[in-house]
Structures are given as C-alpha cells and as structure tokens.
Amino acid sequence: MSNQKENKLKTLLEVLFVSTRLGFTSFGGPIAHLGYFHEEYVRRRKWMDEKSYADLVALCQFLPGPASSQVGIGIGVMRAGLLGGILAFLGFTLPSVIALIVFAVLLNQLGFADYGWIHGLKIVAVVVVAHAILGMAKNLTPDLQRRTIALVAIVLTLLWQTAFTQVGIIILAGFVGYLIYKQQTIDDAPSSSKFPISRRFAYGCLTIFFGLLILLPILREATAINWIAMFDSFYRSGALVFGGGHVVLPLLEREFVPTGWLTEEQFLAGYGAAQAVPGPLFTFAAYIGAVINGWQGGLLATVAIFLPAFLLILGTLPFWDTLRRNPKIKGALMGVNAAVVGILIAALYHPIWTSSILSAVDFAFAAVLFSMLVFWKLPPWVIVLTGAFGGFLLSLL
C-alpha cells in the first residue's frame, strides 16, 4: 500500500514539474501550446498515444473556454486523476498569473500616465489580434456560408454594443450552423480513449457549471457586492468564449471598460503585456483583477475565469465519443466558430484600433511589428519589447 502511495505521489509531482516547466517556456498562443504539449506529453514522455491526444484536442476545441488550458487539465486527469488535472493547471498557469499581477501592481503604483511605452503596447495588441484573425479566418471561414455568418457578426457587434450582443450572436450562429451543416458526414474513426471520470461526477460538474451561470447574475443584482460582481463577469466571460484566448478580449472589454472598472488605456496596456508572458492568454484576467483590487483581485479573477474550463472538461470527458460523432452538434459548432471570427474582427476595430492607431506613424510602426511577427517569425516577447521601446521613442518625437 505504501508503494502505491509513493508511486501516486511521484506521478503527481512529475505532472506538476513538467507542467510548470511548460508554464515558463510556452510562448506563442494556444496553437503553439498544443505543439509544446504534443512534443512533451506524447512524443517525449508517451503519457498518451497520438489518437488519444487528437481526441482530447478535438474535445477542447469543441468546448468554450481556453483550449490549451483544457487540454493540459485533461492530460493531467488522464495521467493522475482529478488532483493531477489540478496540478497540471496550476503548473501551466501560475507563472503568467504571477507575472501579470506584479505588472498590474507596479503600474498601479507608478500611475497610468500617458507613457509612450504603454502606447507601444497598445499597438502590439493591434498586431497580435490582426495576426490571430488571419489564422482563424483561414481555418474557420473557408466557405461562403461561414464568411456570411462572420460578416453578420461583425455588423451586429459594431452596431449593438451591449453586454449581451456577443452571447446572442453566438446562439444565433450556432442555430444557423445547425441548419446549414446538420447533414454533413463525419469521417472520424471511433475513439478508444478512456477517461478516469465517472458519469455521475461529470453530471455534477455540468450542474455546477450551468447553476453558477444562472445564479451568479441573480446574486450580483440582489447583493451589489463588488467581489460577486467581479466573479460573475469573469465567470461568464470564461464560460461563453468560443475560439480561444483572443476572443475573450471583447467580452472582458464590454464587462469592465464601459462600467468604469478600468480605462481603455489600462485594458490595452495589459493586453499588450500579456503577449510577453508564456502560458494561456486567459491569465490576462489576473491583470484586470489586480488593477481593480490588488493581488487578491488578481487571484479571484483567475479562479473565476478558469473555473468554467475546469467544470466543462471534467463534465464532458465521459461523453465525448457520443458528442463528437453527432453531425448536428458539429454543424452548430461550425456556425459558432464563424461568428467568433466576426466578433474578433469587430474587436480589432473597436476598441483596439480606434484607441491605438492615432496617426500615420502609429500605422507604420504597426506594419513593422506585424511584419516582424508574421513574415520574420520572431517570437511574441520580441514583438512586445520592440513595441514598448518603439512607443517610448515615438513619444520623444
């Protein structure tokens, strides 16, 4: 029995060690993270085979929330149970959470004056989101129907800028995708993946997920307590984001900028800084929480925005084989992904472009940074440092 406990502890520590190393070194966004995971967990350590990894990635692309974080959680669960999933998440996420909380606290102490380097970070945000849109549009809107869905999402998002617009667009796009693509055939081979999660536990996680989605807004209105309002905003943002970290930008912007919790300058400066740290982009929430309420707010925001991802991955693992082979569900997801592209394009225009590109010089600098990222393939942290330094130089002109 003691040997079994020792082996369990050794496995848990191994999960924590490997995921923490990835948390310090995984730059480049969710697609790059999946590549790092494949190299480390599948090819090097052989914790799972190629088919199981592909199935897990497909599930996390299907679900709302941060896909790379959910894949990491799923790998930890399959390797060492629920505690393994928690440790895999902590290792991968905490390095960037700590870095962004420190950044927010330092900026709060210095004050958010119109420093040139902060404007440079805002231009970096333009470049990074534009790059994300190009890749997503190529993959998610390959035909006329999905491009039309994206166009409608752009128009609706820009004309009706409310907190509920994005949610309504996602629901509508899912219904349209279901109608258009429900007859498509599924060529995927049957999965043989086994997950150490019982269906009863999964039902409990899904119940908590939907329960909090309904209960938190009611509590927010009934109590007017700030930390409940913060938790609700971050939880809903994490629960309703399809398409990965960049898509959380418009949801968080709508939640916190118009309400006066932080300024657009603070928001975009943090978003630019988030590109310089490894790990999931959802840790941008830690920065926002820390700006609002110090390090305690940063930790609260981190728990709130990642909690839906945890509940969903644990709640759907046992049912994935059935879901992924349903053409109606897959068709709805195709419509949702197309709408995500439109929502992101609208966010690129407002608030990112309108508050960052203020002159021809700004546009020229953005073009240089874009070329460095897309054509010269320089890592994101180089783009961030160049943007901050270039913004400082431009402020001297």
TrEMBL record:
Family the entry assigns: Belongs to the chromate ion transporter (CHR) (TC 2.A.51) family.
Record's bilayer topology term: Multi-pass membrane protein
Localization per record: Cell membrane
NCBIfam families according to UniProt: 2A51
Superkingdom of origin organism: Bacteria
Protein name: Chromate transporter
PANTHER family membership: CHROMATE ION TRANSPORTER (EUROFUNG) (PTHR33567:SF3)
Transmembrane segments: 12-36, 82-105, 117-137, 149-181, 201-222, 272-292, 299-320, 332-350, 381-396
Pfam families in UniProt: Chromate_transp (PF02417)
Coiled-coil residue windows: none
InterPro entries in alphabetical order: Chr_Tranpt_l_chain, Chromate_transpt
Record has Disulfide bond as a keyword: no
UniProt KW keywords: Cell membrane, Membrane, Transmembrane, Transmembrane helix
Keyword Chloroplast: no
